[in-house]
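Quick one: Class I SAM-dependent methyltransferase from Streptomyces echinoruber, structure tokens please.
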Amino acid sequence: MPVAPPPPPEILAAFEAAKGFMPTHEGLALHAAAVEAGKLGLPLLEVGTYCGRSTLLLAEAARRSGVTALTVDHHRGSEEQQPGWDYHDPDTVDSELGVMDTLPHFRRTLYRAGLEEHVVALVGRSPQVAALWTAPLGLVFIDGGHTDEHARADYEGWVPHLAEGGLLVIHDVFPDPQDEFTGQAPYRIYLRALESGAFTEVSVTDSLRVLRRTEAATRERG
Ligand SMILES: C[S@@+](CC[C@H](N)C(=O)[O-])C[C@H]1O[C@@H](n2cnc3c(N)ncnc32)[C@H](O)[C@@H]1O
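--- reply ---
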């Protein structure tokens, strides 16, 4: 994959300041993939918005290519982000309802970076939104729930919409169970994509994997 120009310094600074879990070197790899995928002229889709940290990079790539970044989240947090778990941030709890709500954080992140107009937020459960989706996508970035049930549903719901030549990006791929903190479900969908024969690996940046769809989707292969 050709090296894409990095995001402008102010967007990189906004990414680094935003709440979230993605380290900068993985963010740069995601951004490069999004810039490359944007050349297809199709929307770039993310599963797992959280507070918009990674969305900023998709939005910046979308702005460059004149496409739209789509980001799906119910904004109630994954299992490991709930109160009492390692990844919980009390700031993300709605004080009136007492449940997590990352949507206001996401909206502030995007607004402050001036990237709102390049993003459409899809607020809901990923499988429910995917079931309604029909348009082709240039990039599918999976960074949602880490249980097998969620990762499988994200893969089966969204990957069939990835255009030939489009990029599948999966975060938190840990081949060694000793390295993982939230389960190996992302690793299993990564293997599934490779074993389908419809993808070739483009890059590996720690736990971020980029695969290119080399074959059109079939119902079985996703
Ligand atoms: C690891 S965080 C995403 C981090 C974000 N991409 C970043 O880099 O900052 C996972 C997100 O997926 C969302 N999520 C988990 N399961 C989901 C589902 N089934 N449908 C929609 N969103 C889901 C959670 O609410 C959470 O915000």
